[in-house]
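Shipment paperwork, digital attachment
Item: protein structure file
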Amino acid sequence: MKGGWLHPLGPPWHQSAAGLLILLLCGCVRPPPPAAPAALIDLRALVPVQISVNDPWPSITWWQALQVPALAALIDTALSDNPGMKRATDRLEQAQAIVKIRGADLLPLASTDARISKQRFSGDSTQAKLAGRDFFLTTVDPLSFSYHLDLWGRDRAALAAARGARDADAAELAMARLVLTAAVVRTYVKWAAVWDQSRLVAVMTETLEKSRHIRQVRIKLGLEGKAPLESIEINLAELHQRASQLELAAALLQHQLSALLGRGMTWSPMPSVAAAPTTPALELPSVLPLSLLARRPDIQAVRARAEAARQEIKIARTAFYPDINLRGVVGFETLNIMSLFQPANLVAGVGPSIVLPLFEGGRLKAALNFREAAYDEAIEAYNARLVDVVKATADALSRWTEARAHLADQAHALTAAHTTRHLAETLRQAGLADGLPPLESQLALDNARYVARAMEAELALAWVDVIESLGGGMSNGRISDE
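Attachment content:
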């Protein structure tokens, strides 16, 4: 045949190459131009502070600054047995496995297989030699291989997206660790305060009962009326209520800690004696390094998710271009299994496999739009989280400053109560007063201690808030930003 579009272009491989070139140039769908992505909030626009670089990951043993060995043991148990921590660890292991899978996609694949099947061609089959016959077809492929030509970077983008998801899961695991340890510390701090306050209530109850006895004697002797005794009875009733409330609070805190440690409610994790934590003084610089906020695990997580979403856009764009795989096989095929490995039965083939998107009904553009919107959402999630973190840090620092001021004021009240108690005891020893004033001054002193113990707990809780808001970047009360 001469002329026309069927005119041979030369050798067969020339024809294949020409056809491939035409398909590559004309056969694929053109992707739309990139959309303008959402913008990351600059942390310096939220907090005008210094920038530090190359900061270490948040300190993971910040609670040791409280100097409570029993607390460290509780945290070790929580980190090993808490179901939430186990789930976060499992998610990270899954993400690491996905990274390995995506990394394997960049490598050639090779396999071997063998097949035997009974077949029959119809009597009118184009396979004239086997028409109307039953036969067994045996195929052995010692080597089959394929290699995806990642011309457009799809596999590399998929690997980068998997790494971003893995980094996000690793950061979320670190955040789960920080949240869990902070929750355990808060629960212990509250319980230690309740334990001390219960002890003080018992002491105050005993002091009031002694005062009641003295008042009763005075009433019998006609030295005073019943009004002071009635006031004591009211105070005793109030202390009994306070003791009951503290007992309930201690039970609820034990239940909470049991749940944090992944144990049953009948298990009592608290030590027999509460060691009050020593809250270290925060050594805050005049300006906080930005990295203390930027390195927070949850901030790292949402940023890694955003990077993974950006890579997903690249993957969606590569779907508009031809997908090319190199495939090859070397094996044997025969109708007579006894002569399978004879040279005449050798089969071999190698060549490209090309998939071209021609008409997708808008599916590719919709998928790309979806990925672009997902990236914008991830960016806005980062921005929103950043704003929340800045607010949480400011709130935590304000609570710590206020708690420290309240405790300082209460320290003056304690000093005055000590002075009053000493003066009352001096007067009693000098015979200028009976035993009632020392008891009343002791009651006032113990009540001041009760209030101070609550304020100490509030200061410790505020200290934990600051640590958590800074991503655990504290070491012995000093901000760690080396």
